[in-house]
Amino acid sequence: MRQDEPFDDEEDEGPVTGLPDLVDEEGYDPAFEAGGRPGSGIGGVGQLGDNVVLGPVPDLVADEDQELHELDDQGVEEHHADPNGREARHALMRVEAELNQRWPETKIEPSTARISALLHLLGEPHRGYPVLHVAGTNGKGSTTRMIDALLTRMGLRVGRYTSPHLQLVTERIALDGQPISAAKYVDLYEDIAPFVSMVDGAGGPDAVPMSKFEVLTGMAFAAFADAPVEAAVIETGMGGTWDATNVADGEVAVITPISLDHTDYLGTDVTKIAAEKAGIIKPGSVAILAEQDENVLKVLLERAIEVDASVARAGSEFGVLEREIAVGGQLLKLQGLGGVYDQIFLPLHGAHQAANAALALAAVEAFFGAGKDRQLVAEAVREAFAEVEMPGRLERVRAAPTVILDSAHNPHGARALAQALTDEFAFRKLAAVVAVMSEKDALGILEALEPAISDIVVTVNSSPRSMPLLELNDLAISVFGEDRVRAESSLDAAVETAIGLVEQHDDPEEPLAGGGVLITGSVVTAGDARTLFGKEPA
């Protein structure tokens, strides 16, 4: 789908034993060069002009009484307010308070009419760049971040839109792999606010106003057009067909594993959920499908046939060939659409993340038009995966005892989490701190976690939708038994209790080291824990 892009045309020279510098002695970088040589393709420096300056340049202004020679560029450096400083954060809080008056993401009126109207008023910003669209139940955020990392390493400027956020709403809109600043978020909102008001008023007094998610989606599309980006990776919020992000026509549609979640909105029939999520597969696109339940796969394939989309399936056209647990992650051999990529170090834990990596690789290959005997530059792929960061996904935030947090929030995610903990960690004792949202399948989450943990401390998170403590405590006792359950009314107290549990030594012969604490149950819980341990939004 992309011409003149980052492919490796040389024959396979055998296994790679290291990760050498990708820039040779003459300064040639094959991935960046293939991503767009001067004057050609996407991502090349030449598109920015031959005099592009690589690096930040301070704005210089001269004093009014200072006479400068026409070649004299000296002056006084202009100082700007910190875009993430106190003033910007206060403005962000003001904007968030205003946006929070709108319908939240948990309240939906299925229609793309409002977001379409807003984007029309904004000049159709979502039409200005190619889109890779990601939907599914689990692994959407991880896959989206991996796609972002791969595209960036191939020389493109990338925009990324994800939801929900862990700590700060600015995480949802990312440019160049980093969340936008608080000041940029405020500017984006203030730029589109008049048009949002126009959409709100156009439907009459009884019409549904734009939801917060719809406004944020408009802000993201506008930000990417303004940057401008050369590709945008867009994660759906909930569902697919009626999701606000689905106004974009993705050249590549990525479907991660589908299971039950958001049942109050999407229902309890997994095939109907699949049909909703399949709506992101557009005419003429390429659908990249993770391994799915047989009935789910049938629904997805029917949609692809209906719109004449090409299809690549995990386990058939691409997948994980080999997986070896390594220090700090795992070493992978992946089958891509264009061939085999070996010696891939992924600094993440769990077989589910290996599957996400294969899915992301296939998506990027499809975006660049990879196929038989036409690979991406293998070394660039290795480097991109080696640098992937995944906040809130089996993330270690403390040592001695080890504290890990994970945003698993449904039974499918909790099972993958428990399996990773069992396969890749050797804790002497592992206590879990769990807070779950009221609308979630808390019982299913607890049952999935039970085999992997010794004790559980139930608590609440910062959301008003957090399941009441007594209710969660009763569910935990039904799964773990009363002796293995503790309850604390705050997250910090729950963490302290869990640390105390894993540091107890009833047997004097028992080793002192080897205890661990897991914090999980919700994206909000993981975000609260990141803040508690001093982690910056990412």
From TrEMBL:
Bias (Acidic residues): 1-14
Mur ligase C-terminal domain segment(s): 392-506
Stretches assigned to the Mur ligase central domain: 221-364
SUPFAM superfamilies: MurD-like peptide ligases, catalytic domain (SSF53623), MurD-like peptide ligases, peptide-binding domain (SSF53244)
One Pfam family from the record: Mur_ligase_C
Biochemical pathway: Cofactor biosynthesis; tetrahydrofolylpolyglutamate biosynthesis; Cofactor biosynthesis; tetrahydrofolate biosynthesis; 7,8-dihydrofolate from 2-amino-4-hydroxy-6-hydroxymethyl-7,8-dihydropteridine diphosphate and 4-aminobenzoate: step 2/2
MF annotations from Gene Ontology: ATP binding; dihydrofolate synthase activity; metal ion binding; tetrahydrofolylpolyglutamate synthase activity
UniProt keyword terms in alphabetical order: ATP-binding, Folate biosynthesis, Ligase, Magnesium, Metal-binding, Nucleotide-binding
Protein EC: 6.3.2.12, 6.3.2.17
An annotated GO cellular component: cytoplasm
Catalysed reactions, semicolon-separated: 7,8-dihydropteroate + L-glutamate + ATP = 7,8-dihydrofolate + ADP + phosphate + H(+); (6S)-5,6,7,8-tetrahydrofolyl-(gamma-L-Glu)(n) + L-glutamate + ATP = (6S)-5,6,7,8-tetrahydrofolyl-(gamma-L-Glu)(n+1) + ADP + phosphate + H(+)
Domain of life per record: Bacteria
InterPro entries assigned: Folylpolyglutamate_synth, Mur-like_cat_sf, Mur_ligase_C, Mur_ligase_C_dom_sf, Mur_ligase_cen
Biological process per Gene Ontology, one example term: folic acid biosynthetic process
Cofactor: Mg(2+)
Residues covered by region (Disordered): 1-44
Statement: the UniProt record of this protein carries the keyword Nucleotide-binding: yes
Family affiliation: Belongs to the folylpolyglutamate synthase family.
Subunit structure: Monomer.
Database matches in NCBIfam families: folC (TIGR01499), Tet-DihydfolSynFolCMyb (NF047860)
PANTHER family xrefs: DIHYDROFOLATE SYNTHETASE-RELATED, FOLYLPOLYGLUTAMATE SYNTHASE-RELATED
Name of the protein in question: Dihydrofolate synthase/folylpolyglutamate synthase
Organism in which the protein naturally occurs: Amycolatopsis xylanica
